[in-house]
Amino acid sequence: MPSGVEHTVVELVVVAVVELSPRAGAISRAREFKPDTRAARRKGEEQLDRYVPAVTRYYQQRIDAKQGSDSTRQGAITDEVARQCIKGGSVLFVGEVIAYPLCEKKFECVK
């Protein structure tokens, strides 16, 4: 993750055709997983407001500097971003919060 972004752990950046829509074409997403509560979803949206521009800048800079096509994992990821996540000549990611249900907290004492 690019430096300069507070809380730099993005749960998932999807570098693939996640969705194909007639108007938008392929859409790549940066995903944040949060518990299914209003507060957690809001926090996820706030985090994505920072992550998505940072991830976009990071890969745009790598592509512009021709830093893909090397033997590293990051090079392979950069190549996939260049192949899958370009709209109008620029890298494009869409943020998405994925909510998961909270587990029930049931405790049982056993001896």
Structural notes for this entry:
The protein is an alpha+beta fold and 111 residues long. The protein has one domain. Strands 1-2-5 form a three-stranded mixed sheet. Strands 3-4 form a two-stranded antiparallel sheet. A hairpin with a 3-residue loop joins strand 1 and strand 2. Helix 1 crosses helix 2. The longest helix has 27 residues. It is elongated.
- Number of continuous helical runs: 2
Number of strands: 5
- What fraction, in percent, of the residue positions are helical? 25-40%
Task: Report the radius of gyration as a whole number of Å.
Answer: 17 Å
**Percent of residues in β-strands:** 25-35%
User: What order do the SSEs take from the amino end to the carboxyl end, as H and E?
Assistant: EEHHEEE
Number of domains: 1
Class per helix and strand makeup: alpha+beta
Task: Output mean pLDDT.
Answer: 80
| Biggest β-sheet: strands ordered side by side in the sheet | 1-2-5
> Terminal Cα separation, in Å?
46 Å
- Ranges where pLDDT stays below 50 over 5 or more residues in a row are none
Q: Give the biggest sheet.
A: 3 strands, mixed
Gross morphology is elongated
